[in-house]
Design goal:
Blueprint (H helix, E strand, L loop, with lengths): L2 H27 L7 E2 L17 E13 L4 E12 L3 E7 L3 E7 L2 E2 L1 E5 L2 E5 L9 E10 L13 E2 L4 E2 L21 E10 L3 E4 L2 E8 L2 E12 L6 E4 L1 E8 L5 E7 L4 H11 L2 H12 L6 E7 L6 E3 L6 E3 L9 H26 L3 H13 L8
């Protein structure tokens, strides 16, 4: 080796440790990927401080359920497609039933039930602004669930229903239960043959499978969880007919209603297209492509609620001790209120709460018989 090459070799060996040290320092100083943080277990609503969760936005709920009337046994899976809004190490859903398995992006995840929340820890942190798919397998008896002192699910001999708001959704599926997080929706519900399962949106199909019938519903229009519902039982249903306004018109009447209730319910709910036309003149176009109504018997509860696309009415079409004329006025008001609240609920979901209150109050004042409701 000549002197020049020997000198170069010597310099290389002398510089190598220093270069290695500089490289090590550079690597230690290099910014690493941000560590995920737990999502919040409240959305911060001053009226309902327990409601909602942060760290993600739900894009779609897909429910695949089975229900056994009498036993009030509900089981199935909820596939929730969402987008992380921060780097997440864990996140939560509002939920009252019992989860038995959870996957996040097809990988098993740790989970626990705590204070009416299902808290999920994925195997790896979830990056912000990236989609995630969560599948929750669960079961339980919804009528035995109590959440923050409330019981929202009514079980009957032939099924189940409710006219409870705003807390109802988390009694039967895991969700981000706050109207600021709307999502598209589908539900497949398997029930015994002869039983009907009704929920939001359009009826995709009802197919018999052995001694079961599978009812499939979907909504391409985003839905706030408080406006979701489930009515299961023996119903007389008029499905997928077209109203004069061109929209699909779905209505259902529980077979447990008395003849008087059935007659009053039918005469009222069948006027839904006329009510929508009147209210559209006051509040603007009806925002959905499905309209209708469901008359149920939710125990002793007398109420009507504005579940999206199909208001649900319970025990509001009885004559009872009211005079016949007052009963007709009462039914008319309830019908108008139920349909008005569907439109008002749509406004509320757009965070126009004062407008929501104004719309409902206006509908209530429209009839002098309102105080009987």
């Amino acid at each position: 080796m000549d002197e020049g090459n020997s000198m170069k070799g010597t310099m290389w060996y002398r510089l190598a440790p220093a270069a290695t040290a500089v490289l090590a320092v550079s690597l230690l100083a290099a910014p690493s990927a941000a560590a995920g943080q737990p999502g919040g277990q409240s959305i911060g609503d001053p009226y309902f401080p327990h409601d909602g969760n942060t760290g993600y936005q739900v894009d779609n709920y897909a429910l695949d359920l089975a229900y056994q009337p009498g036993a009030d046994q509900l089981s199935g899976t909820a596939t929730i497609s969402a987008t992380a809004t921060q780097d997440l190490s864990s996140f939560s859903f509002d939920f009252g039933l019992t989860a038995s398995a959870v996957t996040v992006n097809s990988e098993s995840a740790e989970f626990k039930d705590q204070d009416n929340k299902l808290i999920i820890t994925p195997k790896v942190d979830l990056p912000a602004q990236k989609p995630m798919t969560v599948v929750v397998t669960y079961s339980g008896v919804p009528s035995k669930v109590r959440m923050y002192g409330e019981q929202a699910w009514f079980a009957s001999a032939d099924g189940a229903s409710s006219v409870a708001e705003p807390h109802y959704a988390a009694f039967w599926f895991p969700c981000n239960d706050h109207p600021s997080d709307k999502a598209t929706w589908s539900a497949s519900v398997s029930v015994p043959d002869g039983t009907t399962a009704i929920t939001n949106g359009k009826l995709v199909s009802s197919e018999k499978s052995g001694d079961k019938v599978v009812w499939k519903w979907s909504s391409a229009q985003p839905l706030a969880t408080y406006n979701s519902f489930m009515a299961i039982g023996r119903f007389t249903m008029k499905k997928n007919t077209t109203a004069a306004d061109g929209r699909t018109f779905i209505r259902a009447y529980s077979q447990s209603l008395s003849e008087t209730e059935k007659k009053n319910a039918t005469s009222s709910i069948e006027q839904t297209p006329d009510v929508l036309a009147w209210e559209s003149g006051l509040f603007g176009p009806y925002p959905f492509d499905i309209e209708g109504g469901v008359a149920v018997d939710a125990g002793s509860v007398n109420d009507a609620e504005e579940y999206q696309t199909k208001p649900v009415y319970s025990n509001v079409f009885k004559d009872g001790k009211l005079r016949r004329r007052r009963s007709r006025e009462r039914a008319s008001v309830v019908r108008r209120r139920g349909v008005a609240q569907v439109m008002a609920g749509h406004l509320a979901q757009r965070r126009l709460r004062p407008v929501h209150r104004m719309v409902v109050a206006g509908a209530r004042r429209h009839q002098t018989g309102e105080q009987t409701c």
